[in-house]
Each structure stands twice: as C-alpha cells, then as structure tokens.
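Hey, weird one. I pasted the UDP-glycosyltransferase 86A1 sequence into the form twice and got a warning about non-standard characters only the second time. First submission, copied straight from the form history:
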Amino acid sequence: MAYPKPHAIVIPYPYQGHVAPMINLSIRLASRGFTITFVQTDLNHHLISKAQNLPAADVDVFDDARKSGLDIRYTTISDGFPLEYDRYLNFGEYWETMFRDFPDRVDEIVVRTMKLADESLEMPPFFCWLLMLPLRGQQP
C-alpha cells in the first residue's frame, strides 16, 4: 500500500526572529519529501518585502526552492490588525486577540489546504490553540 506524501502546514510564531528558522525547517522537510504550506502573517510578509525593497506581491521566499523542485506553497494570513498597528506597544491587546481570533483564521487555511489536497491532517501541539481548532470539514 502506498502512503500519501506527508504535508506540513508551517505557521511561524508571529515575530520576525522566528521566521527564518521556520523557513529553513520547511526547506529541509520539503527536501525529504514533504509538501509544505508555509503560512506567514501579513505583517511579516510586509516587513520582508520592505527589507527587500520590493512590492509585497513580488516577494516569495520559496521561489528558488520551488525552482529546484521542492513542493512548498506560500500564503499569508491576517493577525486581525492593520499593518501600522503597534503590536509591541499594545502587547496585551494583541495577544488577547491572537488567542481569541487567530485560531479561526488558521482553521480557514487548514480546511482550505486540506480540501485542495484532499487529505487529512496530523499536527503537533506547538501552539496550544491548535488543539482547539474545530477543523470544519474534517471527518471524525
């Protein structure tokens, strides 16, 4: 019996210093046969495009990896705040909203990814709220 190709949905902790290690992990997993869906916050995507002096639509951190044959998809997700919102100054409000609202945003991406790939999901509990996702559309 052939097993389906493993698929990891990678969502870095929403601070810049956590993005590069997760990009490296994603490339390593993809080079070992995983399909990767990398989910970046809109803010981090914006900051990367600003640092590269490129329009946000032109930034794709996995372009070279895909050209080498790796199966890595890239998408962005809103954290619920506009780009100019100061997440450090409003740390408490930011994280309250993240724990309350972000799981629903992640759930939408997970369900969309699963439907496109027609696959099931296994996930490690890196974020405690991942275990609370209702996973709409997931078969019991």
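That's the output from the first submission. The warning seems to come from a hidden character in my clipboard, not from the data itself. DSSP finds four helices and three strands in the chain.
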